[in-house]
Each structure stands twice: as C-alpha cells, then as structure tokens.
Amino acid sequence: MAEKEPKSIDQTTLELIEKAAIDGCDIAFDRADSMKPCPIGSVGSCCKNCGMGPCRVPLAKGKEETPEEKKKRRGICGATAETIAARNFIRMVAGGAAAHSDHGRGVAELFIAAAKGEAPGYQIRDEQKLLALALEWGVDIGNRTNEEIAVDIGEKALAEFGRQEGELLFLRRAPLKRQDIWRQQGVAPRGIDREIVEIMHRTHIGVDQEYQNLLKQGVRAAIADGWGGSMIATELQDILFGTPAPVLSQVNLGVLKEDEVNIIIHGHEPLLSETIVVAAADPEIIEMAKSKGAKGINLAGICCTANEILMRHGVPLAGNFLQQELALVTGAVDAMVVDIQCIMQSLPDIAQCYHTKIITTSPKAKMKGALHIEFDEHKAMEGAREIVKTAIENFPNRGSNVKIPKERQDLIAGFSHETVNYLLGGLFRASYRPLNDNIINGRIRGVAGVVGCNNPRVTHDDVHVRMIKELIKNDVLVIQTGCSAMAAAKAGLMVPEAAAQYAGEGLAEVCETVGIPPVIHMGSCVDNSRILIAATAMVKDGGLGDDISDLPVAGAAPEWMSEKAISIGQYFVASGVFTVFGVTWPTTGSKEVTDFLFKDMEEMYGGMWAFEPDPIQAAHMMIEHIDKKRKALGIDKARERVLYDMAMRRELDAV
Ligand code: XCC
Ligand code: SF4
C-alpha cells in the first residue's frame, strides 16, 4: 500500500486509529507500516520444514531460465521451488481446515453432551432440521425422543473426524456429477483428521516431492473442511441454537453504549456466547448492572462469533477483524470475551491503556495478560454469568478517555439456506425456482460469494466494498460471510433500500419483489458451507446445468489473510467455482504451481483460482466467468433481451 492511501474507508476506523496514536497504543495498522512482508516468504519460496534450513529459494531471474540454472535453485535437501511452494500452500490449507474442523468437533461434543442432558442450558432448538439430518444419515427415528436421535447424530458426526476409510457422509449432498469428479480425481476425503494429518506427513522433509500430488492432497483436505468440518459445525449449531431467519440489527463501533456495560464477544465459536446472550438478559444480572450505575448490558460482537449471534439473535456487530483493537481504543468496552481464532495477541497490551478486561475462555487459546475463565459445557451458564459479572464489576473503572464513534448502520442478516428457500418459494413450496428463473431470464446475471478477512496491507474494507458494488451494479447477486459481510453491512449494502440505490435494474427489480437486499448475509466462515448447499440447491432445481461448475457463479476473498481463507478458497475451487483472491498470492515463487492452481485445476475440477488485487478488475473477471457459464447454458441471449427491454422502457419513461 502506498504511503498516502487511506488506512480504511470506514470513518469510525479512521477516527479510532487517530485516537490510538494519541493514546500511544500500537495497533495492527501501525505494525503493518513498520514491518513489510518478507519478499521470499510471501511468494511461497521459503522452507523451514527442517533444521538444515530454513532454505530461501531465490526467484527465477528474468524470462528464460536454463535447466542448469533451475537445478541450482533448490533447498539443501534438493527440494525445488515448485515443491516448496506447493508444500507451503497445502500447509496453509491444513491450518485452515484444522481450525474450522476443530471448531466442528467442539460443536459435535457439546451436541452429544446436550442430547444426553449433561450440558444444562442447551437443548435441541430445530427439531425439523434434526429429523431431516436423521433421515439423511439413516438414524432411526421411530418413537424415539429428539434427544435419543440427537445422541446418534452427534456420534455419527464425531466419527467423521476420525473416519479412516470410505467417504465423508456429507459428500453425498453434492450434485452427483461433482461426486463423480471427486472420485475420479481421487480427492473424496476419507476422514477429516486423516486428510489434515496426511498433509503434515507429506510436507515433512523428504516425502512428497511432486507438486501436483501435493496440491491434490490439499484439495482433499479442503473438501474435508467445506463438506466436512465446517458443514458439521453449521448443521449442528443450527439444530442446537436454531436455524437463522431474517433479523434486523446494526453494525459498527457506534453500537457501543456510553451508559451501559459493554461486553464484546470475539472469536468464532457460538457455544459460550449463546449462553452469554441468555445471562446478559437475566433480570437479576441487569439489576446488578444498575446497582453499578449502568442502564443495562450491551452485547456486541467482533469477527465470526459476532456473525453467529447476529444471525440467531440479532446481537449487533461491533466490527470486523481490523476493528478488534479499535474497540478497546474507544475506552468503553468493559470486557472483551474471546474464544478461538483471529484474536490479536496485542489485545491485553492495548487493554492496559484503558480499563478493559480481556477474558480468554478456550483451553486451546490462552493469552498472557488476560483473565482466563474456562468454558465448561457442563456448567456453561455459571461461566457465562461469571463473565458478565466481571464486566459489570469493571464498569465503574471506565476512565474519562472514552470516545464512542457515532456511526452505526442498519442491516438485515439471518439468511440461512432454509430461509432463502422459504423467502423465494414460500413456506409450503420452498424452492430455489424463482432464483433460477430470474437467472435464466437474465434479471439476475449470476451469483457471487464474496467472503473472507481484512488485511492491513490494503485499505480496510475498501476492496470488499468496491468489488461488491461493482458486482451488484452488474446484476450479480452477492452472498456473504465473515468479515467481508461486515464491510458490506457498514457500507449500507445489507438493507433492502440498497437495491434501488446500487443494484442494476434487473437485480433491483428482483430484490424489491422478494424484499431482500442485493447483498445477503449468510453468516460466519464455517457457514460458507451454507453457500455450498445453496449452490447445490440451485443445481437440483434445474435449468442451470447438472453441476456447480455449470452455474453462473463465482467466489472471492478480496482482503483475505488467514489460512482458513485459503482452505475455503480451495474447497470452492474443488467444488467447481471460479475463485479470485486479492492482496497477495502465496505461490508466485513458482510459475508451475501457480499455473496449476489457476489453469490446470479448471480442467480437473471445473473451478480454478485467480489472483487480482484490483477489486474492479477482479469483479469483471467474475462477471466474465459468469457470462461464460451463461453462454454455455444457452441463456446469454435472454439477458440481452432483458437489457433491451429495459432500455426500451427507459426510453418510454423519458417520453
Ligand atoms: Fe477471521 Fe472469521 Fe477472516 Fe474474519 S473472515 S478475519 S478468518 S473472522 Ni473468516
Ligand atoms: Fe531446506 Fe529441504 Fe529442510 Fe526445507 S526441507 S528447510 S528445503 S533442507
């Protein structure tokens, strides 16, 4: 990022960056300025997989490298730039798939405990979804109670992680053609943990030396994430906490309240935060807050825990990844409760400048300088109450250095696959038919999943928002998860009025008829599995080909940074989706590996990767891909007609 470029397009973020500087707090934006990325590591050419290294394989010089020159560019063990780039890439997949899947495992364990009555406070909330999953997995329903059925489902889900042979159960949800492709390519995952472990084995010194074979295992582990660990997390969370339905809420740090106890919930797992929501509404606890001079208790979220409790309870979003430190800089956060993933280690230090208590809750994620109140599913409510009480006790310690920004924006969230189904088709004939019809008739050009993180190497939120605006302007319906969804929400794109203001005429017309925004919030990062299900539902509804790769759809993570984003991108590609990433690309140190991901994968999987940091150009790559698919389906003409009709209509209006 050039020096003069703004750090964010979000006024709130800019204001608080300034306040952080005045208060003497060092934040990620500053650290990104003072530490440039390592040029060798950032292109995937640094290997530290053994003690003979680290080996830094220099980049190819100039255009044509002779075989002799190429032979010299090796690690001590002889590993080539290709092997090193591929190994590094799939280790990122392993990290991401492990994170999502371990989250899924935690949900499965709680699910079983809840079903056995060993986790007081949790119960089965979505019976319909429970029974549907029982049918799908062949779990006996008969006269059994929901709890008995749930124990079997939970155990089956848990067994998916340690499965050694065969295939993951959820693969059967994919279009048949997709399943065939996976089997032909030999990438149908056997078990979730197994595929991740195998990456760690194959990337150990002296094992797999063929980049194609390494990347193949990356695909297998990524599928085990999207159609395995992440899908298990989403499905079981829905059954346990309720399947999201549309809900109105607000976003940005302006949701913090001057006169209430502010508690921020940050991380990824909804397991504990679900009970915090309950604890914070307890009249006795609210009385306690009042006794300390607060008017009430205000919960708000950051990162994907935020998305989870927004989707199910309408709890407001305080902000996305790069706003976590800034939340503390307001001076108004009485406690920040964190669970797992995307939590910056700088939080306890920043909290020292103010009064905020940072509370870690997972045995897997502790931090020096934080208070640890461990989440125990057997007494979750006690833990939640203790956390809320800690925040209340801390409220009177709030200093005078408080600045809560004014900005907050309305948004509508809660679009699960089921909701979309009902919204489009109605409760009694739920279907994706109207969506498919509007794609076929060209009012909607296609669908784009725009997801992923923030990255201080680019202007915060800017890349997301510009890409999304360009897509909807061109009649592409945008579906979202993660921190990207929050960027769009802050920019006012997740309210129905945004359709008239920003969307192309065709898309706007459909949004107005159905009453949805042109940008749809589908949840957290594990909820990218909802997007897979939605894409499959589009295929099954007919008229748009017989595989996900036939659909006029595309994916993007324009401000990605986490290994999880790489795993998500890889399972979208492996599911047949053209997927473009921004910011930086981690394999450019090897042309062969990059070409394989960007080109060869299309022949193998029907989907492929691309890299384009400019959001407008990236959006047009996605639109081009969508148009290519429309043409292959023979529905490109319909769109021309629609556009012609609209031009005619405009002319008529002008008369
Ligand atoms: Fe983390 Fe999920 Fe990325 Fe945001 S989008 S920075 S991974 S919180 Ni998942
Ligand atoms: Fe170097 Fe090979 Fe060891 Fe990697 S595995 S650090 S390339 S010697």
What is the topological layout?
Layout: H1 11-23, H2 28-34, E1 46-47, E2 55-56, H3 67-72, H4 81-115, H5 127-137, H6 146-162, H7 176-185, H8 192-202, H9 211-241, E3 247-251, E4 261-267, H10 270-280, H11 283-291, E5 297-302, H12 303-313, E6 317-319, H13 324-329, E7 335-338, H14 347-353, E8 357-360, E9 371-372, H15 380-394, E10 409-413, H16 417-425, H17 433-440, E11 446-450, H18 462-473, E12 476-480, H19 482-490, H20 497-502, H21 505-514, E13 519-521, H22 528-541, E14 553-557, H23 563-574, E15 578-581, H24 591-605, E16 609-611, H25 615-633, H26 636-654
Parallel strand pairs: 4-5, 4-7, 5-6, 7-8, 8-9, 11-12, 11-14, 12-13, 14-15, 15-16
Antiparallel strand pairs: 1-2, 3-10
Helix pairs in contact: 4-6, 4-8, 4-9, 4-23, 5-6, 5-9, 6-9, 8-9, 9-22, 9-23, 10-12, 10-15, 18-25
The chain binds FE(4)-NI(1)-S(4) cluster (XCC) and iron/sulfur cluster (SF4).
FE(4)-NI(1)-S(4) cluster (XCC) binds at residues 268, 303-304, 321, 342, 452-453, 482-483, 525, 562, 564-565.
Short description:
By secondary structure, the chain is of the alpha/beta class. Helix content is 51%, strand content 10%.
Explain this structure to me?
- The protein is an alpha/beta fold and 655 residues long.
- The chain is built from 26 helices and 16 strands.
- The strands form four sheets. A six-stranded parallel sheet has the order 6-5-4-7-8-9, with helices on both faces. The protein has a six-stranded parallel sheet with strand order 13-12-11-14-15-16, with helices on both faces.
- Helix 6 (146-162) runs antiparallel to helix 9.
- The chain is globular and about 75 Å long.
- The two termini are 48 Å apart.
- 57% of the residues are buried.
- FE(4)-NI(1)-S(4) cluster binds next to helix 12, helix 19 and helix 23.
